[in-house]
């Protein structure tokens, strides 16, 4: 005898199976909700600290000595890694571009391609990633160690704001030094391309630099450098927030440092896309 229309002829799940299936679904929803709540609390706390930092940058007291110290620590000591990265990138970019354009007789466009690629995208992004790895992790480790050893609590006891004393100088230094590092990296990258053009491609320095000078516009330079202010602010805020939220011992500092490097890199790459869209629309 056939089953009535609209009903299954197979065995129906028992009430116990339905109950456990609903329990598993509720546990998944609960875990997802807790993850979402933690993420919103993390972003909300970071945004609140960023607002307090901006306010602290324009109100007294100012810790100018700390700012100068961080300018040296963040900016001057990062020149080597960002410069080497940009120089090698310029050489590789010139070499690959020359081989790609050789079939079309476009070897003379190597300088233009290298310059535009570095100034618009590669220079700012690679410099921000290098600074995020070195400076962001260093900020988190330093502030996290101060939290673990209760130095931050001591500052609060003496009525000294950790935001003004620790966070604001590092945010200011990173925000204003990253464009300088990017400008140096752009120049070194173009020089790396020049080296390859002269040594490997048998081009003259005049041809290489002339193609750049004739085609380069101020907007190409400013669009790349303008991004770095946002990148520097993001890196410093993420590093400081993760450092202040360290709980536990030395292992917690290591976890926070790793989190800073990952989040800073992701934020730089995502914000680069939206900033590029914005500057192209302007």
Helix content: over 70%
Provide the residue-averaged pLDDT: 86
Oligomeric state of shown chains: single chain
Characterize the overall form.
globular
The string of secondary-structure elements, in order, is HHHHHHHHH
State which percent range the strand residues make up.
under 5%
Structural class: mainly alpha
The overall strand count is 0
Keywords:
mainly alpha
Written description of the protein model:
The structure is a single chain. This protein has one domain (27-281). It is built from nine helices and no strands. The protein has helices spanning 15-57, 64-75, 79-101, 110-148, 151-157, 162-199, 205-215, 218-244, 250-281. Helix 3 runs antiparallel to helix 4 (110-148) and helix 4 (110-148) packs parallel to helix 8. The longest helix has 43 residues, at 15-57. It is globular, with a radius of gyration of 26 Å. The mean pLDDT is 86.
Question: Can you give me a brief rundown of this structure?
Answer:
By secondary structure, the chain is mostly helical.
List the helices and strands and how they pair.
Blueprint: H1 15-57, H2 64-75, H3 79-101, H4 110-148, H5 151-157, H6 162-199, H7 205-215, H8 218-244, H9 250-281
Helix pairs in contact: 1-6, 2-6, 3-4, 3-6, 4-6, 4-7, 4-8, 4-9, 6-8, 8-9
